[in-house]
Amino acid sequence: MPDARVRIAVRRQRDPESPSSLEAFEYVGPTHVSVLHVLEWINDHPGSRTSTADAPFEAIAYECSCEQGLCGACAMVVNDTPTLACQAFVDEVARDGLVEVGPLTKFPLVRDLVVDRSALEEAMIESHAWLEGDAKVTPRLAVHQYQAGLCLACGCCLEACPNYAPGDLFCGAAGAVGLMGTVTKEPDDAHREDMRRAYQERFFSVCSKNGACERACPAGLPTMTLVSQANRASVWGFWQRIGRRR
Fold first, then answer.
1. pTM of the prediction?
2. What is the bridge-based pairing of β-strands 114-115 and 98-102?
3. How many CA atoms lie within 13 A of 88 on its CB side?
4. Residue range 137-185, pLDDT digits in tens
5. Residues 223, 155: contact at Cβ < 8 Å?
6. What contacts 184, CB < 8 A, 6 or more positions away?
7. In 3D, which of 26, 42, 21, 123 has the Cα closest to residue 85?
């Protein structure tokens, strides 16, 4: 199959204080390749830039690691859709011969396509989402507990979520899935209560359950099912205990 020509527009920004702009390139090659591959190709072919620019070309900054859809490092927005660049193939995502690539918008920008996703880790720390004792695996929940462990914490769910804005206490599906995976396995009652309270405050009272997170999840996790299990463990169980105390 002969090489094809595809227009690539990359949202560039030197640092958080600098203005952003779209820089245009023309990719020439096979199209059943990932957007991540194309970004690497552009950095190796600075002459592919087609937009007028006085400044010399600087390599596009982006993050990647496994290139197999297993780490979540290359999360970005491709043609308005949050996804992993290593799993987005040009022949599948191009619109009228154009692929537009930009950073996730709901995390602080570092440079170009690199963002600071430490808010995800901080939310888990503030929610006490860790185990104090040996994990308690419940056969009924084993499949869901396993699925919760597959979350990449890539941030695509928060990018797609209509209820999340940067700096919110709301922790989105990534937080709910992480809490579900720990609160259902925690043997320590007091610590489990801390996580349950965090879940009720940081997720349950805000989530509208519209399913955007599940549609955006690169790992294909059934986030709505996992949220339901987290609700059962963190909210229904809470009210049942209140009733027993009465």
1. 0.90
2. unpaired
3. 26
4. 888 889 999 999 999 999 999 999 999 999 889 999 999 999 988 988 9
5. no
6. 136, 138, 141, 144, 145, 229, 230, 233
7. 42
Determine the angle formed by the axes of helices 189-199 and 172-183, rounding to 10 degrees.
Answer: 160
Using the CB atoms, write b or e for 114-135: b if 16+ within 10 Å. Answer: bbebebbeebbeebbbebeeee
Question: What's the CATH number where 208 sits?
Answer: 1.10.1060.10
Judge if 231 and 170 occupy the same domain.
yes
Total structural domains within the chain: 2
| Residue 69, helix vs strand vs coil | coil
Q: Would you tell me how many other CB atoms lie within 10 Å of the CB of residue 88?
A: 23
Q: In this structure, what token pair is assigned to residue 184?
A: 């259902």
Residue 53 CA to its chain's centroid (Å): 32
Side-chain-side CA neighbours of 107 within 13 Å: the count stands at: 29
